[in-house]
Design brief:
Blueprint (H helix, E strand, L loop, with lengths): L9 E6 L4 H16 L7 E7 L5 H12 L4 H5 L2 E5 L5 H18 L5 E5 L6 H10 L14 E5 L7 H14 L5 E3 L7 H12 L12 E9 L8 H4 L3 H19 L8 H13 L9 H4 E6 L17 E7 L9 E7 L6 E8 L4 H4 L10 E7 L3 E9 L7 E9 H5 L6 H11 L8 H23 L7 E2 L7 H8 L9
Parallel strand pairs: 1-2, 1-4, 2-3, 4-5, 5-6, 7-10, 8-15
Antiparallel strand pairs: 7-11, 8-9, 9-10, 11-12, 12-13, 13-14
Helix pairs in contact: 5-6, 6-15, 9-10, 9-15, 10-15
The structure holds 6-O-phosphono-beta-D-glucopyranose.
């Protein structure tokens, strides 16, 4: 979609401007768009945060990453407002800045309010946004030019997510609310729709008659680093399971949308998430595994007795006609041997029908969608090895974006920002998707709570740089299957 604000001024307010997200994702993405000439001549970014810092220091805090080139010009658009999120006074100050900019541009400029703070601050921020009348400053006709962007975690369970939703929809209309899941904006995730539905050869086999199971690995080499305050008590299931992994499952399992329209695609995503077979609290030991890396309890800002999981594995089912009975094995963890986000579709093995005596490979056809790194797709097929005797082996057919298209994939946050500017909500969560995913996740969380309180259960530990605790291998191997080696 065309970025219709590319020539039109805009204002972006980043609440939590000194945090991880602003520093590592938002400002770099904005700067990159600026260098590509994708931002208008007139725009301002107002960073709002609690940290004592001057405007000059705020601008300078990024310069060390980007050097001088273009930065001076870009950073002249960057403002810093030090303040307390719970104090209305600062919102009046913010309004003064915004109104000043409107005067200069002589229009009511679109205003994007980006909540990049820990979720504990959302209520204060939303209360004060409402009290200060910020959303209705431009009158009814300009209301939709004000957009609010909410980052995950969107609540911490079904109830809190519902409360946040109510709060948001009380102040804003649906078209103004952008619920971010940056995995939706990844090029490789978007390509899955094209790959599945533009190529006639996949659709006929993309179902329970041909697929044995699906594996998703979401591993990260690094630990929680300096994010203890955010991560402890949240855990990996809420951090990446409730959101990114749900969207990967939706992309694999969805039916063909009626059209390429926003709501048609969101409808199909929703249907998948809503069809996840609930894992009841009493079933968590059968279908889920938790783990914690050794040394986690010594990380900064982590409770010494914390039961927070840094790893989890799940076995789940999508109860749609297409996938009924096909297990999805999903594992996600920190301090794994590699940073890899791969989805593998493992097809039913048919080799033995004719070739049993020649030794069929253990696993036959596997289609792997590499979300990152080495973005691309590979297909494992069985072939006859050259020679007089019939011996079989696996070969890989591969495609990588870099080799084929020769360009770097756009960073997901750049895409998110462009879509916010243009008002395109396709790659943002709709409220029913969130509701269903929280419904599913909250039951597991409840089961874990009971499990932990039973006194009989101990958090499985795993060594750093390994693929999680033994229980994760049992989860899949008890079904006669194996995690794939990547
Ligand atoms: C974030 C999580 O949403 O996604 C992080 O909070 C995780 O814990 C990150 O590291 C992974 O995103 P990406 O794009 O780096 O794979």
């Amino acid at each position: 979609m065309e970025n219709k604000y590319s020539n039109k001024p805009f204002v972006m307010v980043i609440f939590g401007a000194t945090g991880d997200l602003a520093h590592h994702k938002l400002i770099p993405a904005l700067f990159s768009l600026f260098k590509q000439g994708k931002l208008p001549k007139k725009f301002i970014i107002v960073g709002f945060a609690r940290r004592e810092m001057s405007q000059f220091e705020y601008r300078e805090s990024f310069e060390q990453f980007y050097g001088k080139e273009h930065w001076d010009e870009f950073s002249s658009h960057l403002y810093y407002l030090r303040g307390d999120f719970s104090n209305i006074e600062y919102y009046h100050e913010l309004l003064d800045i915004l109104n000043g900019f409107d005067k200069e541009t002589k229009i009511f400029t679109p205003k994007f309010l980006y909540l990049a703070t820990p979720p504990q601050n959302y209520n204060d921020i939303l209360d004060n946004i409402e009290k200060s009348n910020l959303p209705i400053q431009g009158g009814e006709e300009n209301k939709k030019k004000v957009r609010v962007v909410v980052e995950k975690p969107f609540g911490k369970d079904l109830k809190t997510a519902g409360d946040l939703e109510k709060r948001l929809s009380h102040i804003f209309e649906e078209e103004q609310i952008f619920r971010v899941d940056h995995y939706l904006a990844k090029e490789t995730v978007q390509n899955m729709i094209t790959f599945r539905f533009a190529n006639g050869i996949f659709e006929p086999v993309w179902n329970k008659n041909y697929i044995d199971h699906v594996q998703i690995t979401f591993s990260e080499k690094q630990g929680i680093g300096t994010r203890g305050k955010f991560f402890d008590g949240v855990g990996i299931l809420r951090d990446v399971g409730q959101n990114h992994i749900m969207q990967l499952i939706a992309a694999v399992a969805m039916d063909q949308p009626k059209s390429f329209e926003k709501e048609a695609i969101r409808d199909e995503r929703f249907k998948v998430i809503d069809s996840l077979r609930p894992i009841k609290p009493a079933e968590v030991s059968k279908f889920t595994v938790r783990g914690q890396y050794e040394g986690y309890l010594n990380e900064a800002d982590v409770d010494k007795k914390s039961n927070t999981g840094t790893f989890n594995a799940l076995k789940l089912f999508v109860d749609t006609d297409r996938f009924k009975g096909v297990p999805f094995y999903v594992r996600a963890g920190k301090h794994m041997p590699s940073s890899t986000v791969y989805i593998s579709i493992v097809f039913i093995q048919t080799c033995h029908i004719l070739f049993k005596e020649f030794g069929c490979p253990e696993i036959g056809n596997v289609l792997t969608i590499k979300i990152q790194p080495d973005e691309g797709i590979s297909m494992r097929v069985i072939a006859k090895k050259p020679g007089d005797k019939v011996t079989l082996g696996n070969v890989n057919m591969k495609f990588t974006y870099e080799e084929e298209f020769g360009e770097k994939l756009r960073n997901a946050y750049e895409k998110i920002l462009l879509d916010i500017f243009s008002g395109d909500q396709l790659l943002f969560n709709r409220t029913d998707e969130l509701h269903s995913s929280w419904e599913f996740i909250t039951k597991i969380l409840k089961g874990w709570e009971i499990q932990s309180a039973s006194g009989k259960w101990k958090m499985p530990k795993y060594k750093k740089e390994t693929w999680g605790p033994k229980e994760s291998f049992d989860l899949i191997e008890n079904d006669g299957r194996k995690w794939l080696d990547y």
